[in-house]
Design brief:
By secondary structure, the chain is of the alpha/beta class. Helices cover 39% and strands 20% of the residues. The strands form 2 sheets. It has a 7-stranded mixed β-sheet with strand order 1-9-6-2-5-3-4, sandwiched between helices. It has a two-stranded antiparallel ribbon with strand order 7-8. The radius of gyration is 16 Å and the shape is globular.
Length: 205
């Protein structure tokens, strides 16, 4: 991952809001689709930070990788250990950690957000920051999420969305509203990055 990253030419789009949150000491929850996970360890974020990792066998490898990058992990997902992992997440946030969610993981459906990220934001009071990673040249695997691997020496963009503030008290309908808002924001970032890549690359040089 480090070697591949070293070959890429990367620019950051609309990183001002997440940089400002970090500079002010405000904690946050970054979120991105599962198919962008490979390079997200190189996005802009502040440590300490904790990611939710699957309890499945492949989660072991991911936890090892995260720790090599100084990122903590809570073991759980929407299908296994969700409640305990969410409690661990909330405790980590109370200790001053930022959080990470892939809201369509670990099994999909792809690019459809689950409500866990909204519940974490509600419990902690921390805003959600959506991020997309767009490589100009990439390979998409035949996996459930069409997992993307940027090709060496490609140009690439990290595209950051504006923070989403979630109320501490919400009805079931309001939780669904913010779940859809996160989903729409992430999909809009992906579509914008793919559609306007050349413009964004030039404007952020």
């Amino acid at each position: 991952m480090r070697l591949l990253h070293a070959t890429l030419r990367i620019r950051h789009v609309n990183s001002g809001p997440i940089d400002a949150l970090g500079a002010s000491g405000k904690h946050y929850i970054i979120t991105f689709w599962h198919f962008h996970i490979l390079m997200m360890l190189f996005a802009r974020y502040r440590r300490p930070i904790m990611v939710m990792s699957s309890r499945h066998r492949d989660g072991e490898l991911m936890v090892y990788t995260y720790r090599r990058f100084g990122v903590d992990a809570a073991r759980g997902s929407s299908s296994r250990g969700a409640t305990g992992a969410l409690r661990e997440f909330i405790r980590a946030a109370q200790r001053g950690s930022n959080l990470v969610f892939t809201p369509d993981g670990p099994k999909g459906p792809p690019r459809v957000a689950k409500s866990g990220v909204v519940m974490a934001a509600q419990a902690t009071g921390n805003p959600i920051v959506p991020i997309a990673f767009i490589a100009r040249k990439k390979k998409s695997l035949r996996s459930w999420d069409s997992f993307q691997i940027p090709l060496p020496f490609s140009r690439a963009l990290f595209v950051y969305g504006d923070p989403i503030e979630v109320p501490r008290r919400m009805s079931v309908d309001e939780v669904e509203h913010f779940r859809l808002r996160v989903e729409d924001s992430l999909n809009a970032l992906v579509e914008k990055g793919e559609r306007d890549f050349e413009i964004l690359w030039k404007d952020n040089g």
